Amino acid sequence: MAYPYQIASLLQYHEFYKKSVEDPEGFWGEVAENFQWRRKWDSVINWNFKEPKIEWFKGAKLNITENCIDRHLPAKAGEPAIIWEPNNPEERTRVVTYARLHKRVCQFAQVLKNNGVKKGDRVCIYMGMVPELAYAVLGCARIGAIHSVIFGGFSAQSIADRLEDAQATFIVTCDGAYRGNKDIPLKSVIDDALIGNKIVKKVIVYTRTRTPVSMIKGRDVWWEDEMEYAETQVEKEGVVSFPAEEMDAEDPLFILYTSGSTGKPKGVVHTCGGYMVWTNYTFVNVFQYKPGDVHFCTADIGWITGHSYIVYGPLSAGATSLMFEGIPTWPDAGRFWEITEKHKVNILYTAPTAIRSLMGFGEQPIQGKDISSLNTLGTVGEPINEEAWHWYDEHIGKKTCPIVDTWWQTETGGILISNLAGVTLSKPGWATLPLPGVQPVIVDENGKEVTEKDEDGMIKGNLCIKAPWPGILRTTYGDHERCRLNYFATYENLYFTGDGCMKDEDGNYRITGRVDDVLNVSGHRIGTAEVENAINMHTGVVESAVVGYPHDIKGQGIYAYVIYNGRMQDMDQIRKDVNQTVSRIIGPIAKPDKIQFVSGLPKTRSGKIMRRILRKIAEGEVSNLGDTSTLLDPAVVDEIKNGKI
Ligand code: WT7
Q1: Considering the domain boundaries, does residue 516 fall inside one?
Q2: Whose Cα sits closest to atom 6 in ligand 1?
């Protein structure tokens, strides 16, 4: 069997699950035997959630790129590692074999070295979805530099903040990126982000759109020139080599920024050994990957889903990973199905928001396309509504493909709760069962485990996890205390997810959404405080409050209540200015969908904004607002209700 740790039956799932809880050392020690280590571990796991201190495979030495590339070369040199589909369907597809991937990653590692990058340095990667993005990520991993990929939709200000927080000294970017009918001028955004920055030493620029860019002598270099030179260094007498840096299992692999309930994004840190084992294990088991299958994860590598299920999970399993540069609706809403037919995609992993958006175009875009190669479907990022689930099942899976609903987070590194395709049962709208090694617990506000069922037979509360799995975050970059406060301090000795959930009588979990001040817009996490801070930067804004509301396509939309005392002009124009301000400060992804101007906000006597009330109004529930007696000025609520948009 290709993966001895692949779970083959429901019975085996229960057996493995039991063992993983009763003997985690034995269980994970055995799974870890299936990887290539330069040196084995002294201990499988040491942990306490108090500090927190979490170490997996302590003492082990490895390089993740040897596991993702080198070890597959004897059997798979000529097999596709990455199939790349361009934004424009008329442009040529690129197929990157494992041999080619090895060469390019070695070359790029050499480029990094030539430019002065050293083990432990932070390298910010701001690129479109081109194979070179994967080379950049893996090139960093090969020399032990810590990559921090930033999604192309973030603004110069957001990049500047992240560069500063990570103390990044190198940047890899593109001149521009193609997405649908847009060209995004990435290098020019980087140039803005670098105004006043004194620590970035080099910017490596890959040519994709050939949009004019400024190139600063001594700082900016072209990817192509650097790669050409490096080729002569890594390829001697036909042999390609760039020795992979030997890393400790607990050395950081990457930082990925994500939003929380406070204003500033946190740099989630994942390490080499545990993250590798977890992404591989979950990839192989959840999707039930079989060698030769084409796996198409539609996420961007700027998010954790792309890190784990386009790059590290599939490649460490020797899989074929399809990488798509564009968007589902361009040139038309049949793009995913055209790609599926063209590349004979077997596994499709996408977000509920994409499914809902495609559902809106009806069946016409699917007609005439042969998508019968599909055997497994997946969703991630937000709860999936039953209507979308059934549409996916019927029109895409033709009722023959299992759908895995995978619940996880940036902080968890990989999937924690999901059915296993064709092995454990699916239930529409439910993530179902925890993976081996994952011990969920549902607690009430005081951290007490909920054991009483509700009237509907469900156990409901806040979702926590009792013990670490190999892919759990280790810290937040540069601020360990913040990591403790955010995840390990709400409830003693538990990892708190920030999600609410329910559990049925069969032990299935359904995630109902965030219980903190974090929004999930099109599967992207956005902190309300962050959006408020951005809105408040607008000259005329006195104060604002941001909440989520149900949105047909995005899952959640952003609703902003804004107190404005600037010169009164056309209010629609001011809305646009506020949106432009948010775009500048965070990025277009954080723009409010609705802005309501108000004269005051509902506050308690101690000055706390009553978001519960604002949320209800935004949701359209105006009759039952609950207790408003503690409000400083109850009259403001009526005004807000009447002005709802
Ligand atoms: C939050 C994490 C995990 C990669 C993409 C998002 C929500 C994620 C599901 C799901 C219900 C889900 C949760 C979680 N979420 N997957 N299958 N069902 N909710 O990563 O930006 O770190 O966001 O996304 O609320 O906490 P992220």
Answers
A1: no
A2: 381
